[in-house]
Structures are given as structure tokens and as C-alpha cells.
Amino acid sequence: MRWFLFRAVGWVLCLVLVMSVIPVSYGAQSSAKSCVLIDADSGRVLYEKNADDRSLIASTTKIMTALVVCRQCNVLDRVEIMPEAVGIEGSSMYLRAGEVLTVQDLLYGLMLCSGNDAAVALAIYCGGTVEGFVQLMNDEAHRLGLLNTHFENPNGLDNEHHYSTARDLAKLTAFAMKNPVFCKTVSTKSVRVGERQLTNHNKLLWRYEGADGVKTGYTKAAGRILVSTAKREGRRLIAVTINDPDDWRDHANLLDMGFSRYKPQVLVHSGATVGSVEILSGSADRAGLLAGETFRFPLAEGEKVTLSYSGSGFVFAPVKQGECAGFVHVFVDGVAVGRIPVCWSETVDEASMPEKKRFFGR
């Protein structure tokens, strides 16, 4: 990669980065009503279709249920199953009133076989009541900035006020997969819980290289919903499809496209010089800007990266080496994707009095 530094004009300082990445000969397609594919680390959207349309989400609701439990409870705690958690409509792990299971056992029942009874048992244990737990779910959604998500129950049974979007489900999953208990649970293919043998409904765990989660969902009103993740060479992609009759194939194609077309790039190395700023009334005319951290981002072939300094085109002396000089904003094809703190590369003292007088024409 080569850097070309352009002279500051007016208030903006720009850099253009020229690079090449591996080309791809196909694009993504999906039969879903709405879908999204994101790079989990950067949050970059690699593909989307109606990603902000609110929809019923069926059992993918349990992603939030599991996350709240993982954050609030000890997975080794033992839970006595209350009568209220038995005989819940829909998919079930067939709990019996009075039996005792661990929180981890119930998480397996929740995420592998999509037990609606496990969701209620966990909700009562964690939140005191189902209603109290649902409030915890909505609080977490608010904390994560899921603006188009609202929950009415912990299992995903249809309700007009219970909804989310493909984009929000992807954001939720990206956060949830950072929790080691959640990640371990959803990546488990099968497990024995007492006399029960539980098998994960997520077929991609067997069919797709690197697949390690997350959750299926279905009701007649919602259609088929799938949230999947796959990790290769330390990089995680997340795919979400809503109301998709061909979800297994679509997820494989989306993930293939994401891994093939978009390659992680180091756009800026920590400590690299990313430009300079004019210094007025100083002992030197300019001072360099050094990147305060490394910035990585997935890029496709032909995408152009520019950096824009957030400060003015000049500053008055003095400036001190190592002190914060503001931020450089990163753009990909003109769209802002992040920012990097920068510091001064050198100290520039105030000029001596005679030099100041000459500068101001006195």
C-alpha cells in the first residue's frame, strides 16, 4: 500500500490510500423479506435488504433471553422448575414441575431445542416474574441502542408489540457472541441434560465451515427466521434473514460472499504519520500528526479510503510532542466509518519576539 499526502486546503486535511484486494465474481442474493450481513468486529454492513423493517422474530427472541440470563445469573445455580413453566405452547424441552436443573442446562434447552418452557423458567428465576424479566430484556435493548426492537415475552410467541429488525438482531448477536457462556451454548451441537438428549436445530453447525451459532425461529405469521455466525481466521461474520423460505442456502451464500469479497485491512498503523498541520507564530512552520491507534476495516476491491483531520487547517504555537491533536476521520468511498485519535509528532515552541513581529507585519 502506498500513501499520497495532499496539502491542506482550507479547513480539511486529506490522505488517499491506494490498495488492492482479492476480486470476487459474484454478489449476494437472498429470498428473504429482509436480511443483513455484517462484519462483527467493525460493524460494517456487507449486504442488506430491508434491514430496518420491523418484523415478528419468533424464537430468535431467545438470543436476548439468553444474553440477559448470561449477564445476570450464575450458570451453575440450580433452578427448581415452577408449575408456571410447564406445558408452554410451542417448542419445548419438556420440563416437569419440581425438577431441578442448572441455569446452564436450561440455556441448552433454550438455545438448542428452542424450549419455550425453558424461556419461562429462566425468566421467572432471573427476573422474579416473566413481566419483570421482559423489562430487563427491553432495558438491555435500550442500552445496546436497538431502536427498532421491543419485547413482550421471553420466547418469541407472536405479539403485535413484539418485534425487531434484521439490523438490530445482527447488532444484538455481535454483542452476545462476546459473552463466553452465550458463545459456548449456541455453538454446542448436542448435549445430554439428565435423561434428555438435546440437538441443536441450527443445521449450519454441521454444514458450514466455521459456523458457531446462533438461533433459528419460526411461526406461521413470522415465517422462517435465522441468525447465524461463522468465524474464519479470527474474523466473525453475522447473517440474519427474516421470512426466508430458503434460509440455509441463503446464509451459506451470504457468508461465502462476505468472506471472499471483503478482506480485513489495516488502514492506519499506530504511530504512523497521517499528515501535518500548519503552525502559526511558531519556531517551525508545520507539525506532524501521528495515529494514536491501529485502525482495521474490511474492504472490497476498488474501494478508496480517505482520512480527514477534524481540526482546522492551522493552529497557533506552542504544540507539544505526544499531546492530543484531535482526531482523523476515516472514510470509505466518501462514507464515514470511524475515527482515530492523533497526537503531535514534535514540539513546536512559540517563535521569538522579532519573528512574531515580522509575521504580523509590525
Mean pLDDT: 90
Broad shape = elongated
H and E order: EEEEHEEHHHHHEEHEEEHEEEEEEEEH
Strand content: 25-35%
Give the total of beta strands.
19
Rg is 26 Å
Provide the structure class. Answer: alpha+beta
**Which strands sit side by side, in order, in the main sheet?**
1-2-16-18-19-14-13-17
Instruction: Figure out the total of helices.
Output: 9
What about the largest sheet?
8 strands, mixed
Question: How far apart lie the N and C ends?
Answer: 47 Å
User: What percentage of residues falls in helices of 4 or more residues?
Assistant: 25-40%
SSE order and pairing:
Blueprint: E1 2-5, E2 14-18, E3 34-39, E4 45-49, H1 62-72, E5 78-80, E6 100-102, H2 103-111, H3 116-127, H4 130-143, H5 166-176, H6 180-186, E7 190-193, E8 196-199, H7 204-207, E9 211-219, E10 223-232, E11 235-242, H8 247-261, E12 263-268, E13 273-280, E14 286-291, E15 295-299, E16 305-309, E17 314-316, E18 324-332, E19 335-344, H9 353-360
Task: Give your account of this protein's structure.
The chain is α+β, with helices and mostly antiparallel strands and 362 residues long. It is 25% helix and 31% strand. The protein has helices at 62-72, 103-111, 116-127, 130-143, 166-176, 180-186, 204-207, 247-261, 353-360; strands at 2-5, 14-18, 34-39, 45-49, 78-80, 100-102, 190-193, 196-199, 211-219, 223-232, 235-242, 263-268, 273-280, 286-291, 295-299, 305-309, 314-316, 324-332, 335-344. Strand 18 and strand 19 (335-344) form a beta hairpin. Helix 1 runs parallel beside helix 3 and helix 2 packs antiparallel against helix 3. It is elongated, with a radius of gyration of 26 Å.
